[in-house]
Amino acid sequence: MKKATIILPTYNESANIKELIKSIVSKKEMVNGWQLEVLVVDSTSPDGTADIVRGLQKEHESVHIIMTGKNGLGQAYLEGFAYAINTLKADVVFEMDADLSHDPADIPHFIKAIEQGADMVIGTRYSKGGSIPANWALHRKILSIAANIIVRIGFMNLKQTEWTGGYRAIRKWVVQKITPRMSGYTGYVFQVAFLDKALKSGAQVKEIPVHFVDRTAGVSKISTPQYTFQTLWYVFTHSSFIKFALVGVMGAVIDFGLAYTLRAGGLMILLANAISTEIAIISNYLMNNFWSFAHNKVQGGAVQFILNLLKFNIISAGSIVIQLLGIRIGIALAGESYWMVYKFLTISFVVIPYSYILYTKIIWKKR
Ligand code: GDD
Ligand code: MN
Questions:
Q1: Closest residue by CA, ligand 1 atom 21
Q2: Axis crossing angle, helix 269-287 with helix 240-264, rounded to the nearest 10
Q3: Does ligand 1 lie within 6 Å of residue 74's CB atom?
């Protein structure tokens, strides 16, 4: 029989924890072939959460608890994952809030998605059949919706509708692969960072809709300014799309700088530009391969590396043609004086999507 451990991080959840654990334990019969266990990771709550759990342990041997310091939600999960996998021998671990915001009745749906082949299942509030609480204050709704939209666009991954939510089921291999790289993300940013790294590691991620209800007892521990900053910073520093855009800007600087230098050194204008453009293309290729798309590096040795550099050159040539066309069309429609505007618009709205799509479909394909 496979084992799933439901990890409940707690800090001052004495008003919720008993009802939640009883509800989870009552679902045990609903999942055939799986042994369900509960693991509370308590940050030594002063309100006596742990005593309540220890009381429940007398009736239910499937309930476990470990104590930790008050080091953030992500840190609590890291400790919970380690204990669940190494000590309890879990095959799948769950993340679940301990304030009754997540409905234990969804557990069988998560398990089903795992059985159907998913490596990670995420309860989403943002697709059909899911919801955020109607009674949330407006600022909380805006924060949650905006955070998810920014992350989706930042990572150019519209398919994933839920990045921040904390109701998840994860296979052991994903946890083992990702946790060593999570030490810097011990707060609520943990959720976004973990999902990003799991996707980049090739995990099959599936979403199922969940209704998130507002807690009725206790208080939220989230610190909005810190959480917002950490999330934006994470996306900015880990988004392939943003890195790809920066590489594009660096390429332009190299191209212009080198052309200018070579010309000043006495080379013919066309020759200077041919050399500078090709060097910029090669350096873009290298920066994209080892930085922007490092998780999908070109494989297969030197031959593949050169072959893909050739493809990259062809795509880059396409960018130049598209730019010239855009400028031509602009001139035909609105005259010559605004050619820089046409160039800017063509690059922003055609060249950038064109190259990003071709790079990710042809050269740095998802594996
Ligand atoms: N052990 C431990 N240590 N538990 C913690 C800590 C901590 O430092 N901080 C929070 N928790 C526990 C809470 O006790 C609760 O069970 C759960 O983590 C979620 O915390 P809340 O304080 O209720 O967070 P929220 O409802 O505002 O945040 C929700 O939205 C976030 C962003 O979408 C949750 O769903 C989070 O999981 C989610 O990341
Ligand atoms: Mn909550």
A1: 220
A2: 150
A3: no
93 lines ligand 1 (CB under 6 A): no
Q: What distance lies between CA 68 and its chain's CA centroid?
A: 26
Tokens of 314: 């062809």
Residues 6+ away with beta carbon under 8 Å from 317: none
Taking the centre of ligand 2 as the mean of its atom positions, its distance from the CA of residue 113, in whole angstroms, is 24
Model pTM?
0.91
Lowest mean pLDDT across 27-31, 110-114, 154-158:
27-31
The verdict on the CB of residue 94 being under 6 Å from ligand 1 is: no
Which ligand 1 atom is the nearest neighbour of the CA of 190? 39
Q: Which two tokens stand for residue 252?
A: 């332009």
User: What are the tens digits of pLDDT across the range 171-213?
Assistant: 999 999 999 999 899 999 999 999 999 999 999 999 999 999 9
- Ligand 1: does its nearest atom lie under 6 Å from the Cβ of 76? yes
How many angstroms is it from 185 CA to the middle of ligand 2?
19
Q: Does the CB atom of residue 73 touch ligand 1 within 6 A?
A: yes
